[in-house]
Amino acid sequence: MSDVRQTVYVVEDDEAVRDSLELLLKSAQHPVKSYSTANAFLDDYSDAMAGCMVLDIRMPGMDGMELQKRLNDRNSLLPIIFVTGHGDVPMAVEAMKEGAVDFIQKPYHEEALLEKIAAALATDREQRESLSQKQDIIRRINTLTPRETEIMDRMIAGQANKVIAIELDISQRTVEIHRSRVMHKMGTHSLAHLVRMVLSVKDLIDGK
Amino acid sequence: MTELGNTQYDATVLLVDDNPHNLKVLYETLKDRGYHLLVANDGEKALGLAERHQPEVILLDIMMPEMDGYEVCERLKANPATADGAVVFLSALDDVEAKVKGFSLGGADYIAKPFQPQEVIARVKTHARVVRLERELQARNRQLEGDQARILDTITQGIYGLDAEGAIVFANPAAASIIGCELPELVGQNFFAFHFGLTELAGLPVLETCQQGIAVHERGIEMMRQDRSLFPAEVQATPKREGDQLLGAVVMFRDISQELDSERALEEARTTVQEQRDQLAHVSRLLTMGEMAAGFAHEVNQPLTAISNYVRVALRLIAADPIDRELVSETLGKIEAQSHRASEVIRRIRGFVKKPATGKEDVDLAALLEETRQFAEVDARNNDGGIDIHITGELPAVAADPVQVQQVALNLIRNALEATREANTKAPVEVRAVLQDERTVRIEVLDRGIGLPEDAEQQLFLPFYTTKKEGMGIGLPLCQSLIKAQGGDIGFERRPEGGTCFYFTLPVAPAA
């Protein structure tokens, strides 16, 4: 999925800062989309957005922290770089705890900003790739029949075929057939790999 | 007849004749007519009775043995105690010479013998009334003079009566004590020469009162004492006239050196208070700036951030080939605009923090409030509602110190923003200005915030009273002091719909 076009989303209430930042990022060959309020961004937001956000922490109306919360509620993966002013460091720390990737103080050096943006875009790319892998795993899990799912859960729990057959009151042969179907559908030959795959999406499945 | 009884009579009449028959007739004629009648049959007795009883009327026979009527009359007139009685001569002598002699000796009238009772009664009545009236008049005069003298003696102001040339014809004891000499030494001196040591009189204030009849009242005139030392005086001169004629002037004066000292001390104290208020105001502005420092840093950082971004953009633009000159120029223009923006913030801070030029000027309130609003918005970044200004109609200029008025407005607006934040409301802070009456402009700062505590009415303007965690309780008392110094008023009202309205008034500047 690395062919997704990454955009830098700028949310900044100050017109001059927004305009100059937009020009700067464009001149550094970044696709940019900028918004003057948090609400404008939220209205535009979709899961499909890839890239990162440069978000002013203090804004009239909804501020940057509030926007971050709303995006977290919507499971946004967009990495956020907070732009803070002098004396906003406690807020920035709070924002980092809430999952922001970084923050930068105004006025900033271009190099520092561009570095942070590059890092954020890399994070986004990784997250997106890992997410697409996970989504693939979930898709595979969703193709299993209920019986196959039950067998897989017991496999992951470490139960031997014999134990599974006794407990489910079916023949060992039947267990073996189900087991081979599970491995096939999940696209792996190794039980260890299967365990890792399922565990990696465990929170996503449980959350549903 | 007792002395006490005397008071019940209209008048006392003394009858003097050596002839008992005549006396009897006179007595019979005048008795029971309300007179106290005294009788003497010779001059000596008459003088004795007159001295004792001071009769209003003396009917006096001229031809008497030993002392005749003329001599009795002469001696009556010579004695102040009896001089005012009306002497009516009685005589058979009917010649003009006798009458003339009688009048020349002070006689008031003449009755010829043999007399007619009606004539005696009429003349006695007339003369008794005249003498009585004269006596009453004199008594009143004496009383008035006494009162006047007592008043003049007790008055602490110096009083002079001057003639038209400025000679002192009268002085009261206070005048002598102020001048440092004895009362008799003053009378006869020339007011101008004595107190101003001048031979050239032109320009002296009391002069025009003496010469042109113009009343004057001047304070702080330097007058000379007898020892030629000077003292500051308040001098009030009123022309003294009789009919159309100007007789001179009455001058009242007092030594006001102590008064001037007190005034000077008061003025110094007032100046000190003013200076301290200005200093406190200045310190308070610095404190406010301190509280707003983060906000100002933000205000300056915004344009600086934009400038630094634009500069990088410009650098890339000029590194490109070909160079897009138009875009470079546009970017440079933006840089310039942002640098102006930053310097505007600095200018505003400097304007607020600088010590104000003492004294009022004509202030355009609408512009001042707009500038204050921009200033306060540094704090309002965390208020969703912001600050709205409503100016009703055309506001005239007010006479005030603009820096201090801005300080008060900023203080009230920041309080309102804080109350609004604490109430978590999005309602804007409103600033209203309206011409309250032709001489007063009223400025209101309204919020829909958390409102004031119950004891605000008693406490809010007291120093060191505060409702804020970090407050020092200086803001509002200082605002009050500053507004009162501008001749305005300050106060607050609880809004029925919630929140608070603070207001202050300022005097309209006098028309140029």
Describe this entry's structure for a reader:
The complex is a heterodimer of chains A (208) and B (512). Chain A has helices at residues 15-27, 38-44, 64-73, 89-97, 110-142, 146-156, 161-168, 172-185, 191-200, 202-207; strands at residues 7-11, 32-35, 51-56, 80-84, 102-105. With 208 residues, chain A is of the alpha/beta class. Chain A folds into two domains: 7-128, Rossmann fold, CATH 3.40.50.2300; 143-207, Arc Repressor Mutant, subunit A. Chain A has a five-stranded parallel beta sheet with strand order 2-1-3-4-5, sandwiched between helices. In chain A, helix 3 (64-73) links the parallel strand 3 (51-56) and strand 4. Chain A is elongated, with a radius of gyration of 23 Å. The radius of gyration of chain B is 47 Å and the shape is rod-shaped. Chain B has helices spanning 3-6, 20-30, 43-53, 69-78, 96-104, 117-154, 173-179, 183-186, 191-196, 205-212, 257-291, 293-319, 325-353, 365-380, 402-422, 456-459, 475-485, and strands at residues 11-16, 35-40, 57-61, 86-91, 109-112, 158-163, 168-171, 216-224, 230-242, 245-255, 361-363, 387-391, 398-400, 429-437, 440-446, 490-494, 500-507. In chain B, helix 15 (402-422) runs antiparallel to helix 17. Chain B is 49% helix and 21% strand. With 512 residues, chain B is α/β, with parallel strands linked by helices. In chain B, helix 5 links the parallel strand 4 (86-91) and strand 5. In chain B, the strands form four sheets. Chain B has a five-stranded parallel beta sheet with strand order 2-1-3-4-5, with helices on both faces. In chain B, strands 7-6-10-9-8 form a five-stranded antiparallel beta sheet. In chain B, strands 12-14-15-17-16 form a five-stranded mixed beta sheet. Classes of the chains: A alpha/beta (208), B alpha/beta (512). The interface between A and B is medium-sized, with 22 and 28 residues.
